[in-house]
Structure formats: C-alpha cells, structure tokens
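Entry
Fold in token form

___
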Amino acid sequence: MKAILVKEVHGLHGTASMSVPEDIPLDDVITRLAHDPGLRGLFLTDSRQRFVGVITRRDLTKWVRLQFFGETGRRDLSAWEVVSLVSARKGKDVLRGEAQLVGVKETDTLQTALDQMIASKEDIIPVLDSDRRIIGDLKLSEVLLKTIEAGRQTKL
C-alpha cells in the first residue's frame, strides 16, 4: 500500500475541535465541552497562535473526580499533579505533559499520525504548519475510512 499523507485525509468529516487561548478559564473549557457533544477537543494556543496542547473530555475526568470525591481513583498521580489539578483555573493548568507533543503536518504519513494517536491515547490530533499553527484536525474516523477505501482499491 502506498504511503497516504495526512493532507489526503484530514478534514473529510469537517472539524471536531476548536482553537482557544491557553489562558481560557477552566469553567469555559468545561462549558464548551459539555454543551457541544460533537466537540472532541480544545486545541490551546499561545499569544502567537501556536499550538501548545489539547484538552479532551478524558483529560477532565481526573479533575472532576478530585472535585467531587477529593481523589483521583488511581494511585499513579504524583503529588505535583494532584496539586496542579486541584488548583487548576485555566485550560493550560489541566494539560498533560505529552499534550504538547501531539500534532502532525500535512506532509506526514497516516502511519505517523496513527502512531501519535496510539501513544497519546487520543482519537483526534491537530494538523500543524511549520510554525506549529493549527490548520485543522485529524480524527481516527477519517483514518478508518481512508483505510477501508485504500483496501478496496488494492482489491480491484
């Protein structure tokens, strides 16, 4: 099978993400994700509109558990992570360390993108330009559809 590039796939389903400033109040992050079930992730940007990380519903589960029950339910959080989550006031306060490492360019292959999705345990990642500005998102659903399409073409 030929190498399929991200630019051939991203955007097939429109967008399921939104770009917001990294200093967005955490209440606004939660409200946006709660009121829009189709929104899969919030991509945080710095003052120069460069990607700094992604927040998904999964990222907020530990925060919610701390708010309601005073614990995370797992023992794998460091004391620093617990303090950070408890005192979180802005979107950037709940970013996981690897959240800023996620992202592909349009010239990357789907294999590279899928490797990132698996490593980050996310089904949506940003598509970035050479300055790390967001130009779109890539969803697992788009990768799956392209895989089926490519498989059908090789059978012909």
Q: What stands out?
A: The chain has a mean pLDDT of 85.
